[in-house]
C-alpha cells in the first residue's frame, strides 16, 4: 500500500492496522477514479481501478479466512 494515500490524521498512529489503511486508500482511489471519469478521462483511471481491485480482493480474502468469532459486527 502506498503511504501517499494515508490521510494526515492517520499518519503516525500505532492503533491503525493494515485493513484500516486499505479502506482509507480505497476511499482515495474511488475519489480519483470518479474525478477522472467526470473529466472524461476514463482511460487514465485504469491504474487506480487495478489497485482498487487488488485491495478489495485482499480484504475479501482476509474476511473469508477469519474465524466467525473474530469478525467484528457493526451495531
Automatic annotation (TrEMBL):
Q: Which stretches make up the SS18 N-terminal domain?
A: 14-71
Q: Name one Pfam family in it.
A: SSXT
- Domain of life the protein comes from: Eukaryota
Question: Which InterPro entries does this entry report, sorted A to Z?
Answer: SS18_N
Q: Which family does it belong to?
A: Belongs to the SS18 family.
| Name by which UniProt lists this protein | SS18 like 2
Q: Which organism is it from?
A: Nothoprocta perdicaria
The lineage, from the top, is: Eukaryota, Metazoa, Chordata, Craniata, Vertebrata
Q: Which gene encodes it?
A: SS18L2
